[in-house]
Amino acid sequence: AYSGINCLYLWAVGADAGYASAYWMTYKQAVALGGQVRRGETGSLSVYFNAVSKTETDANTGEESSRLIRFMRHYVVFNADQIDGLPPHFTPSAELAVVEPSTRQAAIDAFFVPIPVDIRYGGDRAFFSPSHDFVQMPRKAAFKSQDYFASTLGHECCHWTGHQDRLARTFGKRFGDDAYAFEEICATIGQSLICAELDLPTDLHDSHASYVDHWLKVLKADKTAIIHAASKAEQAVRYLKSFSANAVADIEEEPHDENALQS
């Protein structure tokens, strides 16, 4: 699975090209699966960042020291829609699968319920309070659908991961400053990743124009900001998933409560 900035970039490429498949692979991976990239197709760039620790010995003193060497590699990948001969599951069916509401809600509950976040219900605003460490959510009935509720909760839970006792991201002092805008970018990317994880529509985000203006300011000032934000967002979602990974089996064994996320 592609993650971080690769995930965002390939989403954008796929949407622009109108690809129906969510699968991407290198030429060698396609051939290994029995496929063949069609003649004339153009690949997309995927980047890989990593770091290795190298130990060095001082020739004069004999003392050892270590330094971190960062490196980047790039690969050309193709969407499954550009490849012939792949196994059927790489190509989405023309018939949309019908997902029962109870099954959909069970998947949402399995993701969110194990997260030890203090959620307080009421009011008409959704937000995370870093100083008091709780998420405020309007009641579920205030949302157009359970999808909107889950999407919004995902956004606020991403903020929750940034608390100083968890992933310790820097929260802004006030709306509009760079740290505030960067944190919003992180949470919105994380929200998109959660929507993809839970098969929720990704067009649920209601980003006010004033937010977007501040985001653009940050992104224009630092060309690497989107890469760092995507990395932080991926860390946030991975942190949230670490709770559900250990609890899914227990949840599925219990009777389903359609109001499990409601107070």
Structure description:
- The protein is α+β, with helices and mostly antiparallel strands and 263 residues long.
- It folds into two domains: 4-90, no CATH class; 101-253, no CATH class.
- Helices cover 41% and strands 18% of the residues.
- A three-stranded antiparallel β-sheet has the order 1-4-3. A three-stranded mixed β-sheet has the order 6-8-7, with helices on one face.
- Strand 3 (44-57) and strand 4 (64-79) form a beta hairpin.
Which helices and strands appear, and what pairs or packs with what?
Blueprint (H helix, E strand, L loop, with lengths): L3 H14 L6 E3 H6 L3 E2 L6 E14 L6 E16 L3 E2 L16 H12 L6 E3 L5 E3 L4 E4 L8 H16 L16 H20 L11 H13 L3 H21 L2 H6 L10
Mean pLDDT: 84
Counted by DSSP, the helix tally is: 8
Biggest sheet statistics: 3 strands, antiparallel
Q: Uncertain runs with pLDDT below 50, 5 residues or more? A: 248-260
Taken as a percent bin, the fraction of beta residues is 15-25%
First-residue to last-residue Cα separation:
35 Å
Radius of gyration, in Å, reads 21 Å
Q: Give helix and strand order, one letter per element, not per position.
A: HEHEEEEHEEEHHHHH
Strand order of the largest sheet: 1-4-3
Q: Looking at the chains present, what oligomeric state does this protein adopt?
A: single chain
Approximate shape:
globular
Helix content: 40-55%
Number of separate domains: 2
Structural class of the secondary elements? alpha+beta
Q: How many runs of DSSP E, i.e. beta strands? A: 8
